[in-house]
Amino acid sequence: MQAVSRTALWVASMRAAEAARPDRLHDDPLAAAVVAAAESIPAAPPGAAEFMAVRTRFYDDFLLSSGATQVVVLAAGLDARAFRLSWPSGVRLFELDLPELLDFKERLVTDTGLTTTCSRVVVPVDLRTDWTTALTAAGFSASSPTAWIAEGLLQYLTEADRRRLLDTISALSVPGSRFAFDHMDTSADDRESVVDTLARIRDMGAEFVATVDDPALWLAAHGWAVTTDRVPALAVTYGRPLPDFMDPAAANATALCTATLPLAGQPLR
Fold it and tell me: What class of enzyme is it (predicted)?
């Protein structure tokens, strides 16, 4: 499989490990099947699975609280939210990613017999090119409020591709839309544990840019109200503080952001 798919396998293996815990923050019926189907998956560094569990729960909570009936998962990878979350009635969820990765995922879904808990639409695209045409053709409505997520995506994009993606999301969003994403602060560049993790990701062949200019500032300048959470604080909120051996400064370097396009008359907060 291509390099980006190898990182998707890596994330799935960490989600499978989390699902096996009695105090798990999420369950994932597809993750174990992914691990069983993969020939080999690089080992995660210490603390990575705990970090990933918090990040996953953040996006789960965002989607279920968004109130949107139209959801777009950018770079969906082996994400199983269409199958594992208890969606309210009427939700249509679009999964966007590379064709070969989505084909692999579809085979696993068929083999495991999973059924969706929402209306799921698969859209094979490359997010570095024009993807709005395919999304619209698949039934996306630019006149309806949308809940967007870009989980672990912005770190893989160049500055130009990242700005193009944010431009596109803004152009397709109407007031009431929400957008959740994560990014790494530049402070992560000096943390040994982060450098080690980035080296492992790049060894998989992924074009990992890592730290980026703050996209929250860009979104705020374009009318979005943005709030930011940090992984260690969220871990405490979820009742699962990060292990003591983890570098708190490194964990704090990842920002988990929620952006809202306010309705008319609503102030920016």
Answer: transferase
Cβ-count burial 212-251 (b if 16+ within 10 Å, e if not): bebbbebbeeeebbbeebbbbebbeebebebeeebeeebb
Torsion angle defined by CA atoms of residues 254, 255, 256 and 261, in that order, rounded to the nearest 10 degrees:
-150
Residue 237 DSSP SS3: helix
Cα gap 176→148, rounded to integer Å: 12
3-260, CATH topology level: Rossmann fold (3.40.50)
Query: From the CB of residue 110, how many other CB atoms can be counted at a distance below 10 Å?
Result: 9
> pTM for this structure?
0.90
Q: Where are the domains positioned within the chain?
A: 3-260
CA distance 66 to 180: 10
DSSP 3-state percent helix, strand, coil across the chain (nearest 5): 45, 15, 40
Taking only the tens of pLDDT, the chain with its 269 residues reads 444 477 788 889 999 999 999 999 999 989 999 888 887 787 777 888 999 999 999 999 999 999 999 999 999 989 999 999 999 999 999 999 999 999 999 999 999 999 999 999 999 999 999 999 999 999 999 999 999 999 989 888 888 888 899 999 999 999 999 999 998 876 655 555 555 666 655 555 555 555 566 788 888 988 999 999 999 999 999 999 999 988 877 788 889 999 999 965 554 44
